[in-house]
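Technical annex B. To support the medicinal chemistry partners, we prepared a structural model of the target in complex with NAP, based solely on the information shown next.
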Amino acid sequence: MNILITGASKGIGKAIAQAFCRRGGCKLFLVSRDKSLLEDLQAQTKLSNPNCETALFPCDISEPVLVTELAKSIMQKESKIDILINNAGALVNKKHEDISEDEIDLMFNTNFKAPANLIRELLPLLRNADHAHVVNIGSMGGVQGSSKYPGLAYYSASKAALSVLTECLAEEYKNQGISFNCLALGAVQTEMFAQAFPEAKAPVTAYDMAEFIMNFSLTAHKFMNGKIIPLSLSDPK
Ligand SMILES: NC(=O)c1ccc[n+]([C@@H]2O[C@H](COP(=O)([O-])OP(=O)(O)OC[C@H]3O[C@@H](n4cnc5c(N)ncnc54)[C@H](OP(=O)(O)O)[C@@H]3O)[C@@H](O)[C@H]2O)c1
């Protein structure tokens, strides 16, 4: 089984890669900008399971040209992708009146456009899978009716866009053997969370969330398509 995970260098993405490695029976394509962190992860996974195959793709997925190159280089070696986990994300915690155009672009490019571009570029590989599952990692902030926070307007809006993209693509590709679902995460203790909320402690670890995401990505497409699933112990944390 071929699985591509974006944002695999740290946090939840790294933990998802480690979870798949512990489980075995898969080849992992790991994407993030930091090559040396990906190499560290590759070394760790080899120790934990020598049979777990990993291929590293250092790439800034907020650059559409680089996403095209990334897809091309995967296609040169592989014929299919079974699971695509769009996990990479960016968060700038700033109020509406203070945020800059570049910061807005960073969040929309990383959280919305990058997954959309990656899905488009990888369609030939997704179509070749027996039944591919695209899992988009959203946020509770992007769920209609959830509690909202000052400073997270643009982050939440970018994640809401990703949620709606999930619903729309599920419809567009429902007869092509590709399912799309979005997990709207609540707070998980990672670097991103600690930077955004230095005073707070999240009730869920990256390890536990990763186990859930792995099991969801392996099986949920048999039961649901185009769904946005809120994952929080309370609203919003
Ligand atoms: N932690 C939470 O409480 C929480 C709650 C709701 C939703 N989420 C979502 O869960 C996902 C993972 O979050 P996390 O908490 O694990 O964050 P994190 O610790 O900050 O990790 C983010 C990952 O995304 C990668 N990334 C960021 N920009 C990238 C780019 N332009 N190109 C390629 N990779 C990029 C980073 O790698 P490099 O720096 O090496 O590129 C890193 O591996 C995100 O989508 C986040 O929005 C998290």
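Notes passed to the chemistry partners:
The mean pLDDT is 96.
DSSP finds seven helices and seven strands in the chain.
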